[in-house]
Amino acid sequence: MRQGALIPFGVSALLSWLLVGAVRQYALSRVLLDQPTARSSHRAPTPRGGGLGLVSVVLLTVLALSDARFNPPLLIALAGVALAAAIGWRDDHRSLGVRVRLVAHGTAGLALLPVALWPTLVPAGLGLLAALWWVFWAVSAINVVNFMDGIDGLIGSQALIFGLHLASRGAFGGFAAVLGLGLAGAAAGFLVWNWPPSRIFLGDVGSGAIGLLFVLGGILLLREGQSSLVTAYLPLYFLFLDATVTLARRLRRGERVAHAHRSHLYQRLANGGWGHARVSLLYAGVALIALPVAALPADSRSLGIAAYFIGVLALGVALDRLAERLAS
Q: Where are the beta strands (DSSP E) in the chain?
């Protein structure tokens, strides 16, 4: 972490810890609890909505420590993050229909376009395709993070590491680095409450907004010329690989993908005897390895990324077979 970054990181962590604690008291007073079911990975009723504290701190950090308030495209993007959090907060209180959530997520994704496309990052002729890609990527990320938020500490630790990635790869004092510090610090403060055994869950208010923050952070790295599309999102590879493979399998089996299940690799490992902490640390370790790979010199980076992709894929195959043995 760069010199001078420890203070904003520490302040963000402290504020997040305080706000998440306050949200926990609110959730307990309103009986806003996740009740365990046959498809849950937890055994006791647990407060939800802690992501409200985390996301609030990230937004406050970016507004306070950068010139975002004078940058209309970035303000619109941050409003999209706030919208994703707001619809999630509403869903945490009373379940919303799929169409309502999809419209809100699509609108939040559209809010990223001014940052992603102006000034354009792609040739003018590809503008429409690029816009469709970024909206698709934003909506996908919102829902993937929601799907993967099923055990204690998993998404919080991924957010911490991706935040460190943004802070280390972004231009000094730039929007990506400031967003990264806020995200890493807020995630660290949240993890005090969420590390196994969790005392509060992210809830949809947190998972949806974090998914959008992941996409926005990568866009900011691209804007600053600090990364390629691949290196911008490299630490998320294992997380999204799990989600993509699971989705493909469920579609092949004719299952309803929107319904709750326990077939993700992380769920099968955690429920097969590994426990939440061990699995979350495994996923965090794989994401952490991506940081030095993304920082390799340009002449050796492509080879390093290829080796990382192959290694993670091989690890996924080995863990998938292990999960099958644990379930038998």
A: 33-34, 46-47
Q: What share of the chain is helix, strand, coil (3-state, %, to 5)?
A: 75, 0, 25
Residue 171 DSSP label: P
Predicted local confidence at residue 226, as pLDDT: 76
Q: What's the longest Cα–Cα distance across the chain?
A: 58
CA distance 105 to 208: 8
| pTM for this prediction | 0.95
> Integer distance in angstroms from the first to the last C-alpha of the chain?
44
pLDDT in tens, 103-152: 999 999 999 999 998 766 665 556 788 899 999 999 999 999 999 999 99
Token pair of 138, please? 């934003």
Within 8 A by CB and 6+ apart from 20, the residues are 50, 53, 54, 189, 190, 192, 193, 200
Query: Residue 121 in 3-state DSSP?
Result: coil
Token code pair at residue 72:
């209309």
- Contact present, 227 and 221 (Cβ < 8 Å): yes
d(CA 246, CA 19): 34
Rg from Cα positions in the chain? 19
Inter-axis angle of helices 237-252 and 127-148, to 10 degrees?
90
Q: Label residues 46-66 b or e (16+ Cβ within 10 Å = b).
A: bbbbbbbbbbbbbbbbbbebb
Separation of alpha carbons 71 and 133, rounded Å: 23
**DSSP state, residue 81:** H
